[in-house]
Fold:
Amino acid sequence: MKSGNACYHSVRYLLSSTLLSINLKIKKYRNIILPFVLYWCETWLLTLGEECMLRVFENRVLRRIFGPKKDEVTGEWRKLYNEEFNDLHSSLNTFRVIKSRRMRWVGHVAGLRERRGVYKVSVGKPEGKRPLERPRRR
Structure:
């Protein structure tokens, strides 16, 4: 996530530029920033906190891309609501991308031979018992 944040901050001025079209900004997000954020996501164990962090990050980038919206009633500028992003842009759901990459990785691991370490870790069962005491400090 840190490398994705660093990548976002390096191109955030491009994302808020009025010279580039929204479609070009979205392509930059998908091709430059998203691969940094989702690097090696096949092996992640996503908790609710991490899902929330990913949603916050994605909404922050989309807010930067689409910019503020002028309210028709009051005439004031305001930030876009999260639900409005779905209306403006049918974005790739980040969690669907993670699930598809996981399924691809599982198919890859299933095709490996039994001697490979990744296969042993993912399919095998641990042998022996754990000690009764609490683990030592490392």
The radius of gyration is 21 Å. The longest strand covers residues 69-70. The mean pLDDT is 85. The chain is about 60% helix and 5% strand.
